[in-house]
Amino acid sequence: MGAQISKTFNKQVTHVVFSNGHLSTWKKAKKSDVKLVSVLWVVRCYDDGVRAEEELYPALNDESNPVLKNKKVSTHRCMQPKDSPERTPENDKRMRKKLNKMMKDLPLKQHISTDVSPIIIDEENGIVYSPALKRSDYMAQRLKDMKEKRENISPTGMCISSPVIIVCLMFQVMRTLVMTSMPTEQQNTVVQVVKALGGFSIVDRVCENTTHVVSGGHRRTLNILFGIARGCWILSFEWILWCLEQRQWIPEEPYELSDRFPAAQICRLQRHLSAGEHQQDLFQDQPAIFVSQHSQPPSQSLVELIQLCGGRVCRTVRQAGICVGRYRGRRPEGTRILSEQWVLDSITHLKQLSYDDYDLE
Q1: CA separation for the pair 311, 324 (Å, rounded)
Q2: With a threshold of 0.70, does the pTM exceed it?
Q3: Do 323 and 335 contact (CB within 8 A), yes or no?
Q4: What is the C-alpha to C-alpha distance for residues 287 and 133, in angstroms, rounded to an integer?
Q5: Which residue ranges does the record annotate as region Disordered (predicted)?
């Protein structure tokens, strides 16, 4: 972007990009009246193509950060793993006592409002779920209510400010994070932050243990769609940068890509509220679906997406009511041939979209 980089502090320096650096560099910059900015300032300048206001992206050091004020200064501390043993309920009596108290209080806090609950109670047949559309509306309303009350449903957010930290420690080995639409430099940053802060393992593909999908852009990738279908957090790379800046996991909600992927919040809330294994039912009422071997994305990925959303997939077109992707062979009368985009767009918006806009005939 036209700037000159200096490895040492000298009179020609006008800006210092400070992220967990030496205290002496901080003091020199303050004494020389040089602008101290965080790495987010560089990112914003690159994204906007113009010089951003430095005051909006101030740098932090250990003295100004209350979280680290009483901690010993260490060179590149945020990139070093902790040497102290991890506290768990098994080796810490205080944590075990808190966990037991939480387990006793847990049934008292589980409550669902009866006037908008998506569950219909049938005395003869037991508990029956209401139609998918009603549940989707309920989840949207529940999400709105939680925002108004500022309920924190973020697993990393709970680790920061809530006594539920014990639960986080118990399950953190199970959580995985996936990167998508991300250049190598950003991937390296994510790897370093995860290694320093812990709590996640990084995998290439969204699986049942994945809770976070971090995107370097706004492209709709397969990992994004799998993340939506499985109820994961869909986050921008800026979340990682702020975690690096604060040297701790911060709440995800401000960095969620909900404008680009509107179904992400609702699916995430459904997973959060589900008692057992999370299962979407977007395609549950659709006829049997056959996926063409020539489809793009690959048929195996489309089949998995459809099944994750409650759809029935058949192996031959003779059994299908819907064929996804181009198919030149014979098919039963009445079978609709739809573009692959019908599946992808339906998942993105969590709606059963009209066939007419995706008909390939």
Answers
A1: 12
A2: no
A3: yes
A4: 17
A5: 72-93
Q: From its phi and psi, is residue 81 left (phi > 0), alpha (psi between -120 and 50) or beta? A: beta
User: What are 296-343's pLDDT values in tens digits?
Assistant: 999 999 999 999 999 999 999 999 999 999 988 888 888 999 999 999
Question: Which three-class secondary structure state does DSSP give residue 118?
Answer: coil
Q: Is 87 left (phi over 0), alpha (psi -120 to 50) or beta?
A: beta
Query: What is the rounded distance in angstroms from the CA atom of residue 169 to the CA atom of residue 305?
Result: 31
The domain limits of the chain are 15-76, 122-273, 289-358
State the Cα–Cα distance between residues 15 and 11, nearest whole angstrom. Answer: 11
pLDDT in tens, 17-40: 887 778 888 888 888 888 888 888
| Spatial contact of 287 and 320, defined as CB atoms under 8 Å apart | yes
Contacts of 16 (CB under 8 A, 6+ apart): 9, 25, 26, 29, 34, 35, 36, 37, 59
- Give me the sheet containing 233-236, strands edge to edge: 201-203, 176-180, 210-215, 233-236
The fourth-level CATH superfamily of domain 122-273 is BRCT domain (3.40.50.10190)
- Answer whether CATH 3.20.20.80 is correct for domain 289-358: no
H runs (alpha helix) in the chain: 23-31, 39-48, 93-109, 132-149, 155-161, 165-171, 184-197, 222-229, 238-246, 263-273, 299-308, 340-349
- By residue count, the chain amounts to 361
